[in-house]
Amino acid sequence: MTQFPATQHAIQFVGPDQVVHNEAKAMYPLGPTQVLLKSEACGICFSDTKLLHAFTNHPRKSEVLSGLGADELAGIPSYRPGAQPIVPGHEPVGRIVAVGSQVRHHRVGERVLVQTDYRHLPTASSNAAFGYNFEGALQEYVVLDERVIMDPATGERFLIPVSEGPSASAVALIEPWACVEAAYAWGERCHLRDGGRLLVVADAVRGIDDLLAQATPSSITVVGALDVPGAVRAASLGEVEGTFDDIVYAGSDADVVEALGPKLGFGGVLDVVLCGGAFSRPVKIDVGRVHYDLIRYTGTAGDDAAHGYARIPAQCELREGERIAIVGAAGPMGLMHTVRTAVSGVPGISMDAVDVDDARLAHLAAVVAPVAEANGVPATFRNSRTEPLEPGYTYIAAMVPAPFLIAQAVDIATEGAIVNAFAGFAIGTMADLDLTAIATKGIYLVGTSGSRIQDMKTMLAKVESGQLDTNVSLWAVTGMAGVAEAIESVNNRTSGGKIMVYPMLPDLGMVRLDELAERLPAVAAAMDGTRWTNEAEAALLATAS
Length: 545
Fold this sequence. Notes:
Blueprint: E1 7-15, E2 18-26, E3 34-43, H1 46-54, H2 70-74, E4 92-99, E5 111-114, E6 117-122, E7 127-129, E8 141-145, E9 159-161, H3 168-172, H4 174-185, E10 197-201, H5 208-214, E11 219-223, E12 232-234, E13 244-250, H6 254-260, E14 264-273, E15 283-286, H7 287-292, E16 296-300, H8 305-310, E17 323-327, H9 332-342, E18 350-355, H10 358-374, E19 379-383, E20 393-398, H11 403-412, E21 413-421, E22 430-433, H12 435-441, E23 444-446, H13 453-465, E24 474-478, H14 483-491, E25 498-501, E26 511-512, H15 516-519, H16 521-525, H17 534-542
Helix pairs in contact: 4-9, 4-13, 9-10
C-alpha cells in the first residue's frame, strides 16, 4: 500500500486578507467515497484575491444548502465553509493516487483536469466550488468526494481525464481558458422562460401575445392597466413579492427600472420597452449580478415587447466583420481573450487591445501580434489614457471590474453591439449605464461566471491536438514559498500573464519567465524562446531533487 506523508505544505486563507503558508498541514484520512488527488500544478486567479478579501462574505464560501445532507457534508474533511481556514486554488491538474472502497467512477493513476464549479450544490447566493468552500489545490494533496465531483443531472465526472502529453502548466491553464471560452459560447435565452414567473409593468404595450405564444410561464403578474389573460393584478410594484424570470417594463422611468432590477431572479431578463421615450438620466444596473447571476437587460425603442427578446443573440460569439475592443487586454485574462480573438478564424474581424500600462502592452504585443498577423487579424495595442477610444465598436470585452468602464463600453458601442462584462464584479456593484442607448441600439450586456464541463473539454481537445498552446499565457512560475507574492501581483494587476504554482516545490519563490536565464539558467535553456515548454517544466521540477 502506498504510504503518504502525515503532513504537507499548503496555502491557507485564514481570514480577510490573511494568507498563510502552512508547512505542516495535517493530511486528512480518506473516507470510503473519497478520492486523493496529488497536485501537479495550479494557477493563480484574480478570483482567488476576491475570496481572500471577502472571506466569509464571499457567496461561495458559505454553507451548502441542498444536494448533500448535513451528515454527508460533515464526513467530507475538505468541506470548509464559513470562518474555517480554506485552501484556495481552482485552476489545477493532478493525479489520482488513492481512492476509497466505495469509489466507482475514478481510478488510481488517472491524470485529471478539475472542473471546479459545483452548481448542483447551492449556497445562499451562489453555489459550492472547489477552492472556495471545498479545499482547493494549493496544497500537495487534496481530498475530493465522489458525491461532490459527479454531476447528478448528467452523470458526468468533474475530474476530466487528460493524456500524459501536455505539460502540467498547459493543462492547469485550461480552466481559465475555459472561462474565456464560456464567455463566448454560453447560450442566451431569446424568449420567456417556459414555466417561469413573468412580471409585466405596463399600461399599454404590444407583443405580449407573441411572447406567450413561444413559452408558457407558470404565473403572470401585471402592474398597470394592461390586460393579460390569466394574469394576477397588483395595484403597485410595492405589492409584488418574490423574484421573476422575466420582466417586461413599458416606460422610461429610471427609478422604476432600478426598483425592478432586484426582482430579477437568477438568469432573469428585463425587457425595457421605451415606447418612443428616453431615460432622463443614467440607470443604475448591478453589473455584479450580470456576471454572477446571469441577469440580462434588453429592450426596444418602440412599443413591441417581442422585439426586445428578438434582439438577444443566441450566444455571444464573435461575428463576421466584428470590430473588437478588449479593455484591460494586458492582464492575464485579457491576454487570453486577445489570443482567442486572433485565432478565432472569424472572417473580417479587427481587434484593438486596450490597456493603460505601456510596459504590459509591450509584453502583450510581443506575444499576440505575431499570432494575429499569422491569422490575418489586424490588431493594434493602445493605451487608452493617451489614445481614448472612439465610438464604433461592435464587440467590447471588459476585463477590469471598474463600473465606469462598462458605462464607457456602452458609450462606444454601435448598433447591435455586444458588451461582454467578463470582469468579475462583486454582486452589488452598480454601474450608471445609458439604458436608452442599450434599448434603442440593441446593445446587449452579457456576463458569465466560471465554465462548464463542455467548455473545459473543448479547450482540452485544442490543447491535446496541438491547436492551442495555453502556455502562451504563462508569465511566471513559483513554488509554495512565492504564492503570497504571486497573489499580491495578481491583486495589484502587475502580472503580465498567468502565474503557475508547483505545490511539490515548497521553497521556490516566484520567478518571471524573463528572469529565468539569470535565476534558473538550466530551466531557461529548455524553453522555446520566451515560451514555457514540457522540457522547461521538467527542468524546473528537477530542481527539487
